[in-house]
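Fold this: GntR family transcriptional regulator
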Amino acid sequence: MSEQARPVASGPRPVANQTRRDAVVGELRRAILAGELEPGQRLREVRIAQQMGVSRPTLREAIYQLIHEGLLEQQPYRGVAVTTVDEKFLTDVAEVRVALEKVAARAVADDPDGSRKARVRRAWKAYRAAHAAGDAERLHEAHIELHRTVWTASENILLIRMWPTVEAHTNLAISVDESERADPDRALHVHESLIRAILEGDGETIDAEVEAHTRRSADELVEMLATRRRGAGPSA
């Protein structure tokens, strides 16, 4: 008589080390986007591992993930450092966002049952509420959530899979923009035009507003940074 197979236990499975790695990834990502780890700053593994209470192998796995996302970069002879946000970075991010956000926004506009636009309306309502509250941190989070919603509401599988990497770069670019401009009213009006175009569903207007919102904003920011750098001049 053959031995009867044991039933497979149901319920939670053993937690893999990856869970701890993901927690480290999340905390490092937060520190970078909050400016606690500054662009160009070198990561010192021993000190950070001790500070976070994790092993160096776990920290290295998290670092490799953030290098893949673009928030960290491997520098010759210097090790790993926070990605430098310069004019080229901002221009490259804007170029990719313009191309892909047009696809996402048009997909939301081409809404078969109204659910896609409903999601964008909710995110836009949250953005306006954050603006009215005058809370910079809440507004930043609502800003990212608004763009995240446009991408995910598109229901385009590839866009949804690409968003986490694009989000990391977009988050950095937006953080620099908010720091340099400190003009939430301008951001509100620019987004208002973009969201109106998406909800009204005109493809050509959507393309024009994405260009205005993303590429023009990036071009202005690049010029601001270049002007400041020229004004600083060579150090004595």
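The chain has a mean pLDDT of 87. The beta strands are 72-75, 79-82.
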